[in-house]
């Protein structure tokens, strides 16, 4: 019997649980969450059974996925799981469209109606959110979040932990540095070579 534990019982976690349910690959889907007030309750019908303080009790019997939106926390928890020998599942919603020669690393979640086109590479622990598009020959680093409705054109490189905001656009043949935030609705028309917040059309860095 296959069992899945989702780390994080909040908004993103419940969407991950819904995707796992739709995939139909697990006989049991449960949560771990460090909010003691949540333990013993349920979220959209799935039990919150414990906190991550007791991870070692579940390593041998469960597959894992990290249902936390924050890239830095997701990275920390993912590496902890890997160090403990956990099996990290990759979740791909049945409605997602995946091209040929696509490589998707473990712990990544592909949400409903997203598209990843041919010969693209998606790194460890990424989120490819609802209705987003990653076109051909793209390379996404670890823990990248491509938000709902955003579009990444062909042959784009995205650095680790970068957040592509809702409805953002990145034109083809560019690179975006690690640890960037591309604001909702922004349009990136030239490569970004330093971390920061980028907004507007065309996207420009916000200098604090």
TrEMBL record:
Keyword ATP-binding annotated: no
Span of domain PglD N-terminal: 3-81
Lineage: Bacteria, Bacillati, Bacillota, Bacilli, Bacillales
Site (Increases basicity of active site His): 137
Single GO MF annotation: tetrahydrodipicolinate N-acetyltransferase activity
InterPro entries on file: AcTrfase_PglD-like, PglD_N, Trans_hexapeptide_repeat, Trimer_LpxA-like_sf
Keywords associated with the record: Acyltransferase, Transferase
Name of the featured protein: 2,3,4,5-tetrahydropyridine-2,6-dicarboxylate N-acetyltransferase
Matching Gene3D superfamilies: 3.40.50.20, Hexapeptide repeat proteins
Enzyme class: transferase
Pfam families linked to this entry: PglD_N
Annotated PANTHER family: ACETYLTRANSFERASE, UDP-N-ACETYLBACILLOSAMINE N-ACETYLTRANSFERASE
Active site: 136
Species name: Exiguobacterium aurantiacum
Documented EC number(s): 2.3.1.89
Family annotation (CDD domains): LbH_AT_putative (cd03360)
